[in-house]
Amino acid sequence: MTTFKYVVCNIIIYNICDTMKNNYLENESDDICEVFDVHDDAVARVKEQMLSEEEYSDLSEFFKIFGNPTRLKIISLLSAEDLCVCDISEALGLNQTTVSNQLRVLRANNIVKYQKEGKMARYSLTDEHIEMIFKVGLEHILE
Amino acid sequence: MTTFKYVVCNIIIYNICDTMKNNYLENESDDICEVFDVHDDAVARVKEQMLSEEEYSDLSEFFKIFGNPTRLKIISLLSAEDLCVCDISEALGLNQTTVSNQLRVLRANNIVKYQKEGKMARYSLTDEHIEMIFKVGLEHILE
DNA sequence: TTGTCATATCATGATATTATGATATGTTTT
DNA sequence: AAAACATATCATAATATCATGATATGACAA
Predict the structure, then answer these.
(1) For A10 and D24, how far is CA from C1' in angstroms?
(2) Do A129 and B136 touch (CB under 8 A)?
(3) Which bases in strand D are touched by protein, i.e. have an atom under 7 Å from a CB?
(4) In whole angstroms, what is the distance from residue A24 CA to residue B94 CA?
(5) Is any atom of strand D within 7 angstroms of residue A86's beta carbon?
(6) Residue A24, class by beta-carbon neighbours within 10 Å (0-12 exposed, 13-18 middle, 19+ buried)?
(7) Contacts of residue B93 in chain A, CB cutoff 8 Å?
(8) Is the CB of A93 within 7 Å of strand C?
(9) What is the residue-wise DSSP string for A63-120?
(10) What is the pLDDT of residues A52-90, one digit of tens each?
C-alpha cells in the first residue's frame, strides 16, 4: 500500500515536472508600458497558454475548499486514517452539524468520498492529489 | 535553468513522498459510534498528528489565495513569464485597480514577488511550490 | 516644475461563506 | 413500531471577500 502511494506520487510528479519543463520560456523584453502600447509580444505569448474561463473557475472552486481551517483539519485527519462523522466532530471539538456540512462541501468537490456502513458513514480522501496539495502548501508556509 | 527546476521539483517530491510514507498507518476498527463512546483509539491516534491551530490558519489563508479565478489567472500568467501590472491587466482584460489589488494580496501571502524597474514593477512567482500546487490542482479537476 | 504614466491604496456596495440551531432521514435495537 | 442514534438538510445572522471608482504616490520627460 505504501509502495502504491509512492508509485502514484511519482507518476503525478513526472507529469508536473514535464509540464514545467515544457512551459519554461526564456524571455527578456525591456520596453516600457505605454498607454496604447503594452508589451504586446509578452502579452500575446502569455495569453496563448491560458486555460479556459471554465477551467479557472473550476480550479478556483477546488482550491477554495482548502481555504478554510475546519476543512483543512478534516483533510489532515483523513490523511492519517478513515473516520466517521462523529469521530471527526469529537477530534475537532466541533458540533456534528458543522462537520457534516463541511463534509458535504468536500464531497461535492470530490475531495472526500464515503462508504455507508449501516448508520455510519466512513469518510476518506478521494485521491493522492489532495494529500499532495496539503503537503506542498505546508512546505510553503513552513519556509 | 530547466535542469535546476527539475532538481528543485524532485527534492520537494522526495520530502512529500517520505512524509506520506511515514504517515501511513494501517488501521481497522469496527466498533460503532455511540453517544459517549466514539472510536476513542482512532480519535486519539489521529489527534496526535494534527498541526497547531496557527498552522491550520496560516495554511488556509495561503490556500484561500488560490480560490479566486482572477488570482489563479495571474498565477498562471506569471508561471509562463514575468510581467508588469499593465501587461497583466491587458492580458486579462481587467482594470488596473483590480489587478494591483490582487497582486497586493498575492504579495502579502508570499506568492509573488516584484522588482521595481523605474516606474514599472516586474512581477514573478516566489517559488516552485506555487506552480506545483497549481499543476496538481489542475490534474485533479481534469480527471 | 508641470504633465504623464505605472502602480498603489482606500472606501464601498454587492455577493459569498461561516458556524450553528432546528429539523428531517434512515438504520439499528428492543 | 417505538426509541435511540448517526448523519444530512435547511434557514439564518455574522462575517469575509470581490471588483471597482476615486484618489494618492512616485518616476520620468519636457
Answers:
(1) 50
(2) yes
(3) 4-11, 17-23, 26-28
(4) 25
(5) yes
(6) middle
(7) none
(8) no
(9) HHTTSSHHHHHHHHHHHH--EEHHHHHHHHT--HHHHHHHHHHHHHTTSEEEEEETTE
(10) 999 999 999 999 999 999 999 999 999 999 999 999 999
Q: Please check whether residue A133 touches B, CB under 8 A.
A: yes
Question: Across residues A102-118, what is the average pLDDT?
Answer: 93
Q: What are the phi and psi torsion angles at A112 (to 5°)?
A: -125, 155
B12/A contact by beta carbon, under 8 A: yes
Q: Is the pLDDT of residue B77 over 70?
A: yes
> Helix, strand or coil for residue B81?
coil
Pairwise CA distance, residues A91 & A75, whole Å: 12
Q: Do A46 and B127 make contact, defined as CB atoms within 8 angstroms?
A: no
Return phi, psi of residue B138, to 5°: -65, -45
Q: Does A94 touch chain B (CB under 8 A)?
A: no
Decide: A61 and B95 in contact? Cβ < 8 Å: no
Measured from the CB, is B118 under 7 Å from any atom of strand D? yes
What cell was used for B123?
Answer: 512581477
Q: Is the pTM of this model over 0.85?
A: no
Is there contact between B86 and strand C, defined as CB under 7 Å from any strand atom? yes
Nearest CA-CA distance, residue A135 and chain B, Å: 6
Smallest CA–C1' distance to D25, residue: B119
Contacts 24+ apart (CB under 8 A), B4-10: B5/A17, B5/A20, B5/A21, B5/A24, B5/B128, B6/A17, B6/A20, B6/A21, B8/B128, B9/A13, B9/A16, B9/A17, B9/A20, B9/B128, B9/B132, B10/A13, B10/A17
